[in-house]
TrEMBL record:
PANTHER family assigned to the protein according to its UniProt record, in alphabetical order: GTPASE DER (PTHR43834)
This protein's record includes keyword Nucleotide-binding: yes
Protein name, per record: GTPase Der
Organism this protein belongs to: Celeribacter neptunius
Function recorded in the entry: GTPase that plays an essential role in the late steps of ribosome biogenesis.
Keyword Repeat: yes
Amino acid sequence: MSFSLAIVGRPNVGKSTLFNRLVGRRLALVDDQPGVTRDLREGEAKLGDLRFTVIDTAGLEEATDESLQGRMRRLTERAVDMADVCLFMIDGRAGVLPADEVFADILRKRAKHVILAANKAEGQAGEGGYFEAYGLGLGEPLRLSAEHGEGMPDLYDALKPLAEQFDIRSAQEQPEVDVELTEEEQELGEGEDIGGASREFTFDKPLQIAVVGRPNAGKSTLINKLLGEDRLLTGPEAGITRDSISVTMEWNGTPVRVFDTAGMRKKAKVQEKLEKLSVADGLRAVKFAEVVVVLLDVSIPFEQQDLRIADLAEREGRAVVIAVNKWDAETDKSNKAKELREEFARLLPQLRGAQLVTVSAMTGKNLDKLQEAILNAHAIWNRRVSTSRLNNWLGAMTEAHPPPAPGGRRIKLRYMTQVKARPPQFVVMCSHPDELNDSYKRYLINGLREDFDMPGTPIRLYFRSQADKNPYKNKTKSTPSRLRKHLGKDRADAPKVKKQRPPKR
């Protein structure tokens, strides 16, 4: 039975550090300044033989209005309501502050189970705060050091009995599945495929999607609308998202994991260390994604930074979908759509044929079309073409437009095969591959897109010389061969014949 554990507490008490330790990876951004975490981040945690979902939350602050801190607090309170167990962390070095007492009262009323922990409690500096924690009335506190891993056995001992309770409850809630069928029902069921065709993706290995774009393009709002709930923090302020947060959902039977990333500004404007970490986290999400959704703002589409982000996704070999957000605010939709398509074709020729979808994250308009475009882009990204079809196609392409003949020597394209998918990669064996110009390579790549229905996906085309397969190509010659260089036509191993001098006259 898997249960959920929400880590809650004031800002900068070490929640994200403990989260990273439990999941075994550096998923959450960690910095000395308070308030780094703003969204809810989930991860699969391991502690001994326990397996559970851990939730990293924003630091609790005394704000209840519509400010950024107020919205962050409401998200954290929602995590408290959803979680099976709450781990309430205080700073052992700072001791119990008035805000800790306020939040202890909230947890006492709202949380199902609360475990109290004094973090940063290693050494004598943390002893005072550890003993102060008893006064919160939440039972005996744990003494932890998330940074150094101290106190993990105590946390295991606190979670183990709760995990056993959840196991018992889960067993009682299991539906009855042992039923007897009549002979007629058994005959009807024989040979039928239950549940339809097998899916390519599972919840353990879902389709990975990254949503990227400039700050305030509406990435978090879009994902919340796809998810059907306000999981991610949103608002009019630019740059709210800092971590790359992932959420898992299902689209028409396809499990997907969507990554919300921090807005990417021009490099010259990124000065703060924390923003650099956030952008690096977003770039990492692009590298691990299978499909990248580049989200644009319809009021200022295809800015220089948008083009850089789209080009980055293409260079990383990811399937790309362009989504233009805030479409509900556009008045002249017909002319704007035509203008967007023309700019897309002109400014991003490397993504020729990729789908462009206009959406409204606020109202949910055209999100079904966006989902369809993403699944279609992934199918194209996975496409494979048989070697026989490729070589028939190559013959027709070279006949229609022969390769160049630099220096009067015609380059011969002899053989072609696909060596990889995700993205599609092809190798052509030919003569003089170094002399093949870029325009002819583009001619072949565009032909692959059109003739094998691969619009928009990155295509990698490599040219190799057949001489590269010669095992003796780079082999040094033997010693007798070096001797022949000096002896001319004479054999190096032939016995030398002493030349006779002509007789004296």
